[in-house]
Amino acid sequence: MSVNSILKATLNPIAPTEADVYEGKEAVYITFNYNSLPADFGDDEPAHERFLIQVHLWAPAGYSTLAKRRAIKKALSAVATWPSYTNASDTTGNKKDADQHHVFECELAQAAGVE
C-alpha cells in the first residue's frame, strides 16, 4: 500500500484529506507531504525507505480543532511514529482573515520502491 493511500485512509475519517493541495470546498481539511530517505543498504541498494511525513490541519479562525488534533495524533500513531506537533497558525497577520494551521510530523518505513 502506498504512503498516499495509507495517509488518506487513515485521515479521511477526520477531515477531507489530499496530498499536497486541497481543492475542495470544506473549511476544515487536511493536506500532507513527505520526503523519503533510503535506509538499510545491502548490495548498494536500500532495503527500506524512511518517509518523513508532514500532516497539515487547516481550519478557519475561531474553529475548535482540539478534538481533530487529538484524533490526528491517535490515527497517525497507528500507522507511523507518534507525531510531533507545531501550531503554525498566523498569529501576526489580520486575525479576522487568519486560518489555523496545525502541523504534525512523523515517520513511516516501508520496503524500498513502494511509494
Secondary structure elements and their pairing?
Blueprint: H1 3-11, E1 17-19, E2 29-42, E3 45-60, H2 66-79, E4 84-87, E5 99-111
Parallel strand pairs: 1-2
Antiparallel strand pairs: 2-3, 3-5, 4-5
Helix pairs in contact: 1-2
> Secondary-structure element order, as H and E?
HEEEHEE
- The total of helices stands at 2
Average predicted confidence as pLDDT: 91
Query: What is the CA-CA span between the terminal residues?
Result: 8 Å
The stretches of 5 or more residues where confidence is low (pLDDT under 50) are none
Summarize the biggest pleated sheet.
Answer: 5 strands, mixed
Task: Explain what this protein looks like in three dimensions.
This protein has a domain at 1-46 and 68-89 and 105-115. It has 2 helices and 5 strands, in the order αβββαββ. Helix 1 packs antiparallel against helix 2. Strand 2 (29-42) and strand 3 (45-60) form a beta hairpin. The model has no long low-confidence stretch (mean pLDDT 91). With 115 residues, the protein is α+β, with helices and mostly antiparallel strands. It has helices spanning 3-11, 66-79; strands at residues 17-19, 29-42, 45-60, 84-87, 99-111.
Summarize the structure.
With 115 residues, this protein is of the alpha+beta class.
